[in-house]
Amino acid sequence: MKPGHEIRLRRRPVGMPTPGDFELVETRVPAPAQGQLLVANGYMSVDPYMLSRMDEAMVHMAPFAVGAALDGAAVGRVLQSRSEGFREGDIVVHGLGWRDLALVDAGNARAVSGAFPVSAHLGVLGMPGFTAWTGLRLGGLRAQETVYVSSAAGAVGSAVGQWVKRSGGTVIGSAGSAAKATRLVEEFGFDHAFDYHGEDVGEALARRAPEGIDLYFDNVGGRHLEAAIDALRPHGRIIACGMIAHVERDLPGPANLPLIVGKRLSVRGFVISEHEDLRAEFLATAEPLLAEGTLRSAETVFRGLDRAPEALLCLLDKTSENFGKAVVEL
């Protein structure tokens, strides 16, 4: 048995989660059984979908259980292996974050390249990057289209913009501050970006895309979705992978849904875990671009397992200057 630590859900949040809903607990981690790995986690991911898992009404994933450790993507080094497919020292990605030591079934671990910073496997090469690439594929992105992406300074949004530019398209992003918008244009190649606190979303899109947009990549929902429906051209498309605005259950929905019919729009939601068959193709495309520096990665790093709840709650903070992928270094 080895001593470890994990973050548990102390109580079910009432409304928005708060730091008091979590607790850091000491644990004892047993040696791996046959077919298992003992992994020392180096980094863990915090992602918007985790906020939805606080809610018992979660639809497509099991909600977090009160009194149990949270879980999510992590990357670490194998300390002990009782699986023929892994050796001590291998770097692996798995789903048991929110703890410093993880006892992982080998079938739920994936060895990754050591040629990149390990945290990249949680960001631009991990679930967010894979989500961006897959979502644009499912959305039928074509060359020279105009795409709007909400939450563009996040891990998914910043990757979406880069893939759109590689297709020859025009990309518009919204972000939570003027500084983030500037970074999107100057560092990530966005054609336009705006602070949705400082500008009305609909007016911002009308100014930057007066002829309309072809595709909306929705990370937010709410007024961003409503503005995008207004801005979409006939036969435009919406691809939705997250609606973080609707963590607040009383948020009203878009008032212009009849335009989906009038404009003959296509709307598709997706869950990235259903598209594992595309991961190898994604990595074969993304890894060389990251190696040569033409695919950029940005991270906000929180240090220490005890800061994991803070990192997660920062995803809800509309005044936070977090940029790119939020990770916790353990």
Automatic annotation (TrEMBL):
CDD domains, per database record: PGDH (cd05288)
Which SUPFAM superfamilies does the record cross-reference, listed alphabetically? Answer: GroES-like, NAD(P)-binding Rossmann-fold domains
* Stretches assigned to coiled coil: none
- Keywords of this protein's UniProt record, alphabetized? Oxidoreductase
Q: Which GO terms describe its molecular function?
A: oxidoreductase activity, acting on the CH-CH group of donors, NAD or NADP as acceptor
Source organism phylogeny: Bacteria, Bacillati, Actinomycetota, Actinomycetes, Kitasatosporales
Q: What is this protein called?
A: Alcohol dehydrogenase zinc-binding domain protein
Pfam families given in the database record: ADH_N_2 (PF16884), ADH_zinc_N (PF00107)
Q: Where is the Enoyl reductase (ER) domain?
A: 20-328
| Gene3D superfamilies according to UniProt | Medium-chain alcohol dehydrogenases, catalytic domain, NAD(P)-binding Rossmann-like Domain
Highest taxon in the source lineage: Bacteria
